[in-house]
Structure formats: structure tokens, C-alpha cells
Amino acid sequence: MMTLTSYFDAYLSDFQPFKPYWNYEDGCLLLGCARLYEATGNSRYAEFVLDYLSQRVTAEGEIPSYLTAQHCLDSFNCGKLLFFAERLTADSRYRKAAAWQAAQLRAHPRTESGLCWHKEIYPQQVWIDGIYMAAPFLAEYALKTNDSGIFDEIRRWFRYAETHLYDSAAGLYRHAVDEARTQPWADPETGCSPAFWLRGEGWYLMALSDTLALLPASQEDFRAELSAALSRAAAHLLPYRAEQDGLFYQVIDMPELSGNYTETSGSLMTAYAFLTGAERGVLPPAYRQTGLEMLDAVTRTKIIGGHLTDICSSAGLGGAANRDGSPAYYLSEPAVSDDPKGVGVLMLTLAAAEKKARSSDEKAC
To answer: Contact 191/181 with Cβ under 8 angstroms?
Structure first.
């Protein structure tokens, strides 16, 4: 039987960048490797990250493959590894690159309410995944530079999500909002997209968890806000678990919908947030057991023939494909295997489980 370690070894050995430029998909995998290194001490994971970054960050701290004209929040996901690389190597190129990437926000177009557009091609739109891509990066940058004002910016993003993207009736978060109310997918009153997409929910849960981990003592009030948001989101999501495997559906609240399936990446994101939230005392201890059960379910039912299956390949709104955000749209996107958005979060989730187990063993000794 293939173990997760052997699966990761094979995956990294065959790795090909997801895109030729600085991209968030590779960032998912790199983050998973970084956390597994921190949890297990296995140097292979750290070496993989450093090899990737050393080829893409110049000695002057420039990132030639960064597509600045896209003004894309997704580009910040890979930037999170710059802090990890600087800690391991003390190489100034990574500190310079992080500062350069943070400076990109100064030129980023913003909505009328002051939030960053998700991308240049999505004007006046705030997508929930963008909060995950950028907020933890900015929080760690604020810690490194002692710039407490950055936390005010991050807080506005989370407050916006709680005000504009949270649906109190369902207890779930919408994928995006169009402040201009011009997109065909946007509700004319709220501007929100119509369906509850699992990975969108997952991105936000991870944004809450990862940002919480980076808040200093001086941000006690902000920490309380995010803790309350994570507690509420977790409690309201739990009833939607599928009976057959304990995971969550691609369209979260419509298990009976034809073609709906328990999706791997979003389920793992949820398990990761449950594990890390319980570890930090934000969520009750029972959430750790739930997260472990979900990790076990993925390992038993979603790794088939040596491949991690049932990963939504991609999902968005509008654009050239005129994606309408309906439940049928999310189910029309192909489910693929071994996508880094699934593999990376599997690494993150295993690392969260391993880190706690390792810590308990060390205390016992």
C-alpha cells in the first residue's frame, strides 16, 4: 500500500512547474513542503523549496517571472515562501524579494470600498481566495518589518468578507462580490455570486487560520475577531459533512444535486483549518479528531492507483468563458488527479497532524 511519504516522494521527483511564471498553484505545493519540513525535519522538503526559489529569485531580489501587469492577488501565494527561505539561508535576496512583492500592492487597482481587485481582468471584484493568497503574506511581512499599519489593511479585508461574502442563512461564504453590479453572475442587490463552492470556503478557512498564527500580541483585538470568525465558520460548516465519507461536497449545500461529489482539495483545506484551529485553542479539541478523520478519509478513498483524485481543476467567475457561478457551473469544471492545489494541501494537513503528534511525543519524553 502506498504511503503518503512515498506518494510525495514520487510527486516531487516528477514535478513540473504548473505555469512558467510565478504562480499560486506551485505556491500550494511549496507551502506544503515547507510545513512538512518544519513538522518532520525531513530535509528533502526544504531542499525542494530552496531549489525552486533559487532559480526564480535573482541575487538582487528580483522575480523576473512575476507578471506585474496582471495585478493578481494569486501571485502572493508563492511569496509566502520567501520568508521561509530567508530563515533557512539568511540570504538577503529573499528579504529583498518579499519587500518588492509587498510593494506591488501600492499599484494594485482597488474597488470603490478600497479592497484590491482580484486581478486586472476582474475589475471591481473581490474574490474570497484572494484573501488567502495575500493576507498571510502581508501579516508575515508586517512582523518582519514591524509595520503595524499593515494589520489595519488586513483587518479591512476580513471584515469585508464577514460583511459582504458571509451568508447568515446558510452559514457559508460566497465566492465573490462585484461591487459594480455589472457581471452577469452578480446578484443585483448584493453583488454576490450565487453558489457555495467548497474550495472558496476552504481558502477562507485557511486564510483565517494562517493569519491568526502570525498575529503578534499587540493585535489582541484583531486576534479575537478572527478567532470568532473561524469558530463560527467551522461550526456552521460541520453539518454539511457527507454521510458516506465525512468530507464535503463541491457544491457544499446541495448533496442531492446530480453530479455533485465530495471534493478533495476543499475538504483537505477544511481539515487543515480544523487541525490548526484546535492546536491553537481557537477551536474545541474535538475539531482535531474531525480533521484527522477527514485526512484518513482522503487517504483511504481519494488516493486511487497511486493518484490523488477528485480535485476540482479550476473554478472562477466571468471571463472569456462567461462562468456564471451557478451550482451547475461548478460541477461542469473537471475533477482531476494530482493537481498541486490538492497535493499541497494534503501536505499541509499531514504536517498539521504530524506536528501535533511529534510535539506530544517530545513532551512525553
So the answer is: yes
